[in-house]
């Protein structure tokens, strides 16, 4: 008999306990669904926040030199104006003086290229309000309307961002 009792106790231990069915009322089910939706929304908001912050940090690093470049542009403009004073006579004092300006200007251009700054200074291209600022219009023969006739002040692009639009004269 003892063997039978031991056998029954072993069989009972091997049996899986039956799960009790918990009865939920409709309010509990509704509350659970609301909490699940709120959790999913919170996760999505967190993911979007991280993406936004990563993009902001990336742009800050990408355009960190923008303020410095903007401060250098008037200096570059002044060098260009000074160099434009040079004439064909290379023996006079002004030409010798401007030769040094040209060397400094070349170094400035190299620095700007190093930081991926490009000039907007092309003529005979279609006016683009994203990169050009129309200052004057002029009727020019053999030029279709809306074309850049003259660049009055160079514009500049840092990486893909226009930091100063080119001031241009546009054909009518």
- What spatial form do the alpha-carbon principal axes imply? elongated
Cα(first) to Cα(last) distance is: 115 Å
In sequence order, what are the helices and strands, one letter per element? HHHHEEEEEE
Which CATH architecture of the largest domain?
Roll
CATH homology group of the largest domain: Head domain of nucleotide exchange factor GrpE
Put simply, the count of helices is 4
The averaged pLDDT comes out at 87
Question: Any descriptors?
Answer:
172 residues, alpha+beta, Nucleotide Exchange Factor Grpe, Chain A, domain 2, 3 domains, three-stranded antiparallel sheet, three-stranded mixed sheet, 4 helices, 6 strands
Structure explained in plain terms:
With 172 residues, the chain is of the alpha+beta class. The protein folds into three domains: 27-62; 65-115; 117-172, Nucleotide Exchange Factor Grpe, Chain A, domain 2 (Roll), CATH 2.30.22. Helix content is 53%, strand content 18%. The protein is built from four helices and six strands, in the order H-H-H-H-E-E-E-E-E-E. The strands form two sheets. The protein has a three-stranded antiparallel sheet. Strands 2-6-3 form a three-stranded mixed sheet, with no helix packed on it. It is elongated. The chain starts with a helix and ends with a strand.
